[in-house]
Structures are given as C-alpha cells and as structure tokens.
C-alpha cells in the first residue's frame, strides 16, 4: 500500500471504497478488520462520514452503508460515463421501436435520478427529464431497483410511514409492509409497474439493470397512456424494457437476472 501524507484522508477514502464494494451494510468491526484499521479510528471516521451524509448508520443492526451524499458524487460520473453513454443508445432504439417515451434512472437515496430521457414524437410531456428526482417508491423505475436492494438497505430508506409520500390521487404504498408486498410482486414478475402515481392518466413499466456483482445499478422504463394498460401496448412496453435492461446489463458486463 502506498504511503500517504494524510493518513486520515487515506483511511476515509478506503472506508468509502470498501463500503461501495459490499452487497449491503456491514459492521464497523468488519470494516476495521478488512482494512487493518484501529477500531477507535474506524468508529471516529464513520461518525464523521455519517454526520456529512456519506455513510448511513443502521442503529438497531449496528451496520454501516453508503449514504445519499456518496451517491450524489457517483451521480456526476454516471451522467457522463459509462452508464448514461451505454444506456442512451439502447433507450433510443427502444423508443424508436415502441413509439413511447423511455428513460434510464439510478437510485439516489430514496429518490430515482433520471440520467437518460428519450421523448417519443407526439407523446404527452413528462416530468422525468434528465437530472429530475422523484420518490423511488412511486415510480416504476424506482420499484424495479428497490426490489433487488438488500433488506437492510431498504429498511434504512423506507423504514417508517413518514418515509412515504404521494404525488397524485392514485395512492402508492404508504407503509413499509405495503412496499415489501409490492416489491415481492416485482421480483416475481421481473418488471415493475406504476399506474398514475406519478402523472395522472400515464402508466410506466420498468426493468432493472444489474452490475458485475448482480447489484441493481439502474432501471429502464417506458411511459405510455394509462388507458392502454392491460392491452397490446402495455405488453409491448413490458417486453421492450425487459430486452433493453438485458442489453444494457450485457454491455456493462453485468450479471443477468
């Protein structure tokens, strides 16, 4: 390991990098052991990172995971390379084939952040523009990703009824239990749906993109008129997002579902 002139900064960056490689939150003692750091220093650095939002502390389980601020840093990279660049061409092809608007989104805390947006000609305007953030539990894009998160990370994001909100008169999940039941259906079906929870009279369907570790890196979605839900268009949109998500996963050398 190269010698650092700033040991505290070096240890801090090593902790963040280590957390980013884990499948879910981990204990401080394990972090200290894996990185060969003194436990007292590890706890001090984790406390500082938690205070600034780079780490989330799951108090009841005594575990630590990446926080919203760390995801914000990653967002700048994802908007440039490689996910957005790889995904944009796939989304464009999908939209051309189906004729409905498509997007690629990533999870940022309890929100989804849209990094690719492709509008189909003569289709309704959408709120899902690039850099727009929406509550993940209300969107098909967010549900597709949330369904594959480790249970501890999901509880950290949506552990209380106060964590839930609404945008329209169509209710989404309003409690951790309702969300878990919804996400169980998403895992069983392989796609996530949303019908009017984001914009009245519009529906969306999304499929997850996985990285090299099988972690949900992003999701691909199509939005279409809600009255068409259940018909031929809905079926075509579902098939299209499945294919697009599989193609982006392949190009990222991710693990297929």
TrEMBL record:
Record InterPro entries: GAF-like_dom_sf, HTH_MetabolicPath_Reg, Tscrpt_reg_IclR_C, Tscrpt_reg_IclR_N, WH-like_DNA-bd_sf, WH_DNA-bd_sf
Stretches assigned to the HTH iclR-type domain: 6-68
Keyword field: DNA-binding, Transcription, Transcription regulation
Pfam families, sorted: HTH_IclR, IclR_C
Coiled coil spans: none
KW DNA-binding (keyword) present: yes
Domain IclR-ED: 69-254
Protein name: IclR family transcriptional regulator
Origin species: Brachybacterium rhamnosum
